[in-house]
Amino acid sequence: MLRTLLQELVSSAVQSGEEIMLYGKSIDDVDEMQGVIPRLLDVVLYLCEKEHVEGGMIFQLLEDLTEMSTMRNCKDIFRYIESKQDILGKQELFARGKLVMLRTCNQLLRRLSKANDVVFCGRILMFLAHFFPLSERSAVNIKGVFNTSNETKYEKDPPEGISVDFNFYRTFWSLQEYFCNPASLSNAPLKWQKFTASLMVVLNTFDAQPLSEEEGAENNLEEEATTFNIKYLTSSKLMGLELKDPSFRRHILLQCLILFDYLKAPGKNDKDSSESMKEEINSCEDRVKKLLEVTPPKGKDFLHSIEHILDREKNWVWWKRDGCQPFEKQPIEKKTVHDGTKKRRPRWRLGNKELSQLWKWADQNPNALTDSQRVRTPTISDYWKPLAEDMDDSAGIEAEYHHKNNRVYCWKGLRFSARQDLEGFSKFTEHGIEGVVPLELLPPEVRSKFQGKPSDRSKRAKKEEMRSTSHQVEESQIATPASEIEGEGIRADAEASVAVMDTDVSTATGNNSQGGTPTPEPDEHQKQSPDTDVGQEAGQLEADAEVETGMIDGETDPEAESDHVG
């Protein structure tokens, strides 16, 4: 009944000569902007949404309406479909009519001209992209099949009476055969060589004839968008004018980037392309990007936008190669732990999950640990070298760019010095962070500021001597109790020898008093040379040292004791 009513309304609108979507609109109703047919569609859509009628009815009416209308009226009908996209995309309606909507849009695309109705075709494709989910397999080209039927026809023979480089013309348009089917270049080295030779000719021509800013300003791309055509004219007479068109150049260079992006697609089998082919692709791609950057107007912005689009395209290719996994993820349900049971924590081989995964990811861990390129803790000299260069006045580095202003750098350096250079670390309290820098890294004029004073060195030497002396005394005190028994006998022998020596001295004194050799006076002792005094003192110190050593060790020489006694 509804389909019959819609057919009668369309026939009445055609007989009256009015547009279908505006038929039945009253002139007096200024606020009411819809005709009879849009109001009928709204009523059916409401009934479908409330489940009073079958959910696919609205889609069936839209298909019938597009089949009964001309292309001029179909634009208004599709505008209505776009306005109701959110309601039509609800799950209860979408599941019933998605196939009917897909069939309707495909029929419209077949009826439209790809050269004259480019904008309308784009609107239909954008609607399908938003209406269907990304995981819809009907909208995904799983096998990556190219539309090889889109051929570019051009002149094969040179025309008469026209001065044009026909070889370049034929070489230029022959590139479209490879752009139409990029897969043919993967397994055919001869085709690839022929393609690169032709491409180099075209790129050399673009380099030899650069476009100026004035030529770029003359061609307003925003105005051209309204009359954009999907195919360029291939007449040899227009070759010179097309080369001066920046939009024309951009489209050719963009086709090159799309082809290179396909040949470098992620997940593609590496056996299909050799190393030399990969190098040629990279060099050609860099050259094409440079030409796009210098093509006016706003070449850098255009290149940046194209690179962003190609990066997003890689994600799309990865998703298709992985089997078009759904993007929607179910929420994780929290499992309730039963009372009285403790959840056992998992054990990791290296202490935690991150380290265990890192160990598994490395193929050859022992080699990775001994690699010379491995990042290691720097030495004191290497770490403080940047700060030493800042302290050199001849370098001319401004104070605000010095490394000493970096708190993290200074903190790390103090930790290194505390572990590896304790003497330099002790200078921090007196000279600041610059005093911690090793002296050998500093220039001579700066090094003198941070060298230690002589008085400080003498005090430090005295402290070290006092430490060594106290250490020797402690050792002697430890060794003395062990030889007390033998020491008593040594003392008795020493007292006896002293008594004998006193007897000899008294005898010598008596001889002198009886007319022997006179005793020297004090003045004579003062006349002795200082070298003699020094020698006597040195000999006395050596004798004392020998006596002390003998007393500590508890051993005496028997021959020496007999001499003293005798």
UniProtKB/TrEMBL annotation:
UniProt cross-references to PANTHER family, sorted A to Z: HPR1, THO COMPLEX SUBUNIT 1
Comp. bias intervals (Polar residues): 504-517
GO terms, biological process: mRNA export from nucleus
InterPro entries associated with the record: THO_THOC1
Name assigned to this protein: THO complex subunit 1
Region (Disordered): 447-566
Organism: Gossypium barbadense (Sea Island cotton)
Comp. bias (Basic and acidic residues): 454-474
GO CC annotation, single: THO complex part of transcription export complex
